[in-house]
Recover the amino acids of this structure.
C-alpha cells in the first residue's frame, strides 16, 4: 500500500486543500467525526485537544498585586451579554455560551458551545469590591483584596550559609 492511499484528499487536488466530499470517501468522513467526538469528550476533562489547544476555554491570565487580583480572559466572538461572572467562597466563575454563526458550513474547526471556567482566587477577596469589564472580546475582572490581606509581605534576609 502506498502512503498516498492513506491521504484523505483526492490526488487531483493540492495537498494543503482539505477533502470535504463525504460521498467520495466515507471512511475519511467517519475518521473526521470520530476525531471530533474524542476532541469534544477530552475537552471536558481539561486534556489538551489534538491541535494543541488547551482543554479549558477561555484562556486566562491572572495577575496579583498587594491590593488586588486581576483576571483577564480572551473570549473572541462573544459579546458582553454572552458572559456571566460570579464569585462564591473564593472561586471566580466565568460562564457563557458561544453560539454557532452558521449551520450550513461544510467543514468547521471553529469552537462553539457552553463553557464554564472556575478560578480559585482565595478568601482574601472583598466581594463588595469586584468589577468586570468586557471590551473587544476580552473580559477583565478586578478583585480587590480585603484591607487585612493588603499588608505587604515581610522580607526575610538570607544569610550565606
Amino acid at each position: 500500500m502506498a502512503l498516498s492511499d492513506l491521504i484523505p484528499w483526492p490526488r487531483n487536488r493540492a495537498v494543503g486543500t482539505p477533502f470535504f466530499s463525504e460521498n467520495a470517501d466515507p471512511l475519511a468522513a467517519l475518521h473526521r467525526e470520530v476525531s471530533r467526538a474524542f476532541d469534544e469528550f477530552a475537552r471536558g476533562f481539561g486534556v489538551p485537544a489534538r491541535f494543541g489547544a488547551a482543554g479549558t476555554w477561555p484562556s486566562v491570565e491572572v495577575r496579583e498585586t498587594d491590593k488586588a487580583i486581576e483576571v483577564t480572559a480572551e473570549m473572541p466572538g462573544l459579546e458582553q451579554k454572552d458572559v456571566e461572572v460570579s464569585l462564591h467562597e473564593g472561586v471566580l466563575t466565568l460562564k457563557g455560551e458561544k453560539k454557532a454563526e452558521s449551520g450550513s458550513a461544510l467543514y468547521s474547526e471553529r469552537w462553539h458551545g457552553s463553557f464554564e471556567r472556575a478560578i480559585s482566587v482565595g478568601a482574601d477577596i472583598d466581594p463588595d469590591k469586584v468589577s468586570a469589564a468586557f471590551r473587544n472580546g476580552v473580559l477583565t475582572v478586578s478583585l480587590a483584596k480585603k484591607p487585612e490581606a493588603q499588608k505587604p509581605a515581610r522580607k526575610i534576609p538570607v544569610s550565606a550559609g
